[in-house]
Amino acid sequence: MSRRSGVLEFAVLGLLRESPMHGYELRKRLNTSLGVFRAFSYGSLYPCLKTLVGNGWLIEESGSVSQDAPATPLSGRRAKIVYRLTAAGKDRFEELLSHTGPDAWEDEHFGVRFAFFGQTSRDVRMRVLEGRRSRLEERLDKMRAAMARTRERLDDYTLELQRHGMESVEREVRWLNELIESERAGRHQRGGAGQDRTTERDEDRPPQQDQSGDTDGPPRHRGGSLPDPSDDTAK
């Protein structure tokens, strides 16, 4: 399974854990809630759904189409299939949610993993955040070394582009440091004593989604969006 299809599987299972949806609703949520999927189409989503159904993680049910759904079909007809997570699908999502390997903190996966931090245990959140920080610190070292080697050969505009990329990574590292400090201090918790998972899901959206202004959750990056971890100069 490719990284791209793997992160799509994770996102679909996570969204369907919240409530059953049909294909159009899923695509809309993927596009609006998880920006990494803006370029996804039914051509990408439908095969993923069929695979998840085939694995026994989803079931298809007949259901009505919401009023804002277009007539665009998923497979040559008006979409009327509702996808519901099975018990095995919930177990599969829990398994994926517990993964803390390198894929969890790479660029393509991290934003999606962060979007489901409200359903993730504290120890897993910490490992993902620390892994992401370590990855970006390695990237910064490479960018600084590359700039030091090529500074004299670059024109002013290319040099500014490299500086911009490096500053973006530095901002995300600072943001991650704040998140990690907040996690260690336990300021992420909103439930009763002993609860390790967030119960108010709307307040645990990733930074680009949370505009509530609350101060008791994870610190948000200035500007309200996830920092851009550009590393064009690291290659």
From TrEMBL:
Q: Where is the composition biased (Basic and acidic residues)?
A: 197-207
User: What keywords does the record list, in alphabetical order?
Assistant: Coiled coil
Coiled-coil blocks: 126-160
Q: Which Pfam families match?
A: PadR (PF03551)
The family database entries (InterPro entries) matched by this protein are listed as: Metal_resp_DNA-bind_regulator, Tscrpt_reg_PadR_N, WH-like_DNA-bd_sf, WH_DNA-bd_sf
Q: Where is this region: Disordered?
A: 184-235
For whether the record's keyword set contains Cell inner membrane, the answer is no
> What protein does this entry describe?
Uncharacterized protein
